[in-house]
Design brief:
Radius of gyration: 25 Å
GO molecular function: transcription corepressor activity
Family: Belongs to the UXT family.
CATH architecture: Orthogonal Bundle
Structural class: alpha+beta
Order of helices and strands: HHEEEEH
Strand order of the largest sheet: 1-2
Coiled coil: 17-44
Protein name: Protein UXT
Keywords: Coiled coil
């Protein structure tokens, strides 16, 4: 085989392994983080809905709070009509139950759009990898009749 072709094949393989596969791993990691964020918001929304449906937002409730290392203390919440919602960058906003659900719905839609974007990027990166591997196969002289 021609040494120039062998060098090009090696460059393409290096690009696939060092750049494209690394990009793919980073995109998948970002996708997993966004999926976990959505799961947290949906869990919070379900909890808020349960509070509202059972009247716990006005009557209060007792709970146990993990203070670390699986040590729990008992807590009494007398009025759960407002909650503190993490809005990012370490800032919390006190919102009514209904406003919190509205903010959660907006955040979930935003996260869904970001997930859609990451999925497109993953598909594009996978297509680039496949295209380069097909090019390498062609340079090596293999017939691509499957």
């Amino acid at each position: 085989m021609n040494p120039d072709i062998q060098r090009k094949i090696l460059e393409f393989e290096t690009f696939v392994n060092d750049v494209l596969k690394e990009d793919l791993a980073q995109l998948e990691q970002k996708l997993n983080v966004k999926n976990a964020d959505i799961a947290e918001f949906l869990e919070l929304k379900a909890t808020i809905t349960t509070f509202k449906n059972n009247g716990l937002d006005k009557n209060g409730f007792k709970t146990q709070v993990d203070i670390g290392q699986n040590f729990f203390i008992e807590a009494q919440v007398s009025d759960a009509s407002t909650i503190l919602l993490d809005i990012g960058l370490g800032h919390y906003l006190e919102l009514s139950i209904d406003d919190a659900v509205a903010v959660i719905n907006v955040r979930v839609k935003l996260l869904e759009q970001q997930i859609k974007h990451f999925r497109k990027e993953i598909a594009r990166t996978n297509a680039h990898i496949k295209l380069i591997l097909l090019g390498i196969r062609e340079l090596q002289g293999f017939d691509d009749k499957m």
